[in-house]
Amino acid sequence: MFEKARNHERLAILQAAREADMVPYFRVMESPAKPIVEMEGRSRIMLGGNNYLGLTEDQRVIDGARDALEQYGTGMTGSRLLNGTTRMHLELEAEIAAWMGTEDAIVFTTGNQANVGTLGTILGPGDTVIVDSGDHASILDGCLLSKAKLRPFRHNKLDKLERMLQRAAGDGGGVLVVVDGVFSMEGDLAPLPDICDLCEAYGARLMVDEAHGAGVLGERGAGASELFGVEDRVDLRMGTFSKSLASCGGFVAGKADIIEFLRIQSRTFLFTASAVPAATGAALEALRVVRSADGPPLLRAVQDNARYFRAGLEQRGFAVVEPQRLPDGHPYGADIVTPIIPVLIGDDWQAGLMWKGLYEAGVFVNTALHPAVPPGGALLRTSVMATHDRATLDRALTAFSDVKASFEAEHGALPGPGEHGRRRAA
Ligand code: PMP
Predict the structure, then answer these.
(1) Which residue numbers are catalytic?
(2) Same domain, 46 and 193
(3) For the chain, which terminal residue's Cβ has fewer other Cβ atoms within 10 angstroms, N or C?
(4) From the CA of 117, how far away is ligand 1's center (Å)?
């Protein structure tokens, strides 16, 4: 039974990485999530979070958490269905629906549960669900739980999506397409206008995971669906409080009858405790900041920082993603850079070495290795915040240059500009 835990293929490599103190995971945070954090005894520039607007530090959000703690205590000790719904939940659901421009919204304890509990409930064994191969794990888990027929298509390949829609037409049940609006590792966008066209042509429904889009993209910060002007063509929009909204929890927004069905049927909603009050209070205040006059400047600041940092890495010879094209005449201009800026390294071990060099130079980034990315596609996932100042980003860029120079002197050249796109197309 436990053989797989004791003898799995990654054990030897993990052991070697531990001995070289090169494991990029489970590092210990000693301060709040901020542009510069304390980690394992020293300050490090945080380029490995999802706190895109920096709202974990906002006094209004902190007060929201504290007031909720004082009013409702440390935990609700029960499900939303029974003793876990507060006035904050009702306000949060109403304000999310207003933000997303939908009839209703439902708040879950985590974003992961929002995906699993929505897909596991909406889909049934007779249905077909079509997913992008880059979709978040919780989407896949919800699909598997539902026992619907799963038809994955290659990441962002519209011809493959169309082929799956053609095949699904013969499956005989309802058809749902699920994509991330912004993909969590590569930071690229789903081409939502084309996806909407295809779904409409084939009579399929569409759900968009806005975990990395909500609180980042669009004038209202309502996500990739807003950025692309397709909000009224998307049936269900999922989001989380664990990124721009500076807390923990998740939501799904859509038509009132579907949301009400989830309230009485979704197992991850019914059979788990309501979030701790501080989490709900913080999310509610963070949403209010995003929707206030203070929201748009923060949204602009994170965009500007993303563009600046991506360009800086490219100038220093790193293989970063290209800015993404927007439809002609888009108010944002010709293209956009999301705050997730992956740097392609290629080899897993080399990514570990680069990670360690950066960590020692006082910069924390995330490392994505196979199977999170395709074999040979190891990357360092960097992400910027609205509250990183330019001096901090410049220091991080200098660290990237220095670490690259010493790495290349010993191990040879890293992939350079342009190579990210080429490898992804391959
Ligand atoms: N969807 C995506 C695209 C995500 O990146 C994440 C979090 N990594 C989730 C869903 C799950 O959200 P949460 O962290 O709130 O459980």
Answers:
(1) 184, 212, 243
(2) no
(3) N
(4) 13
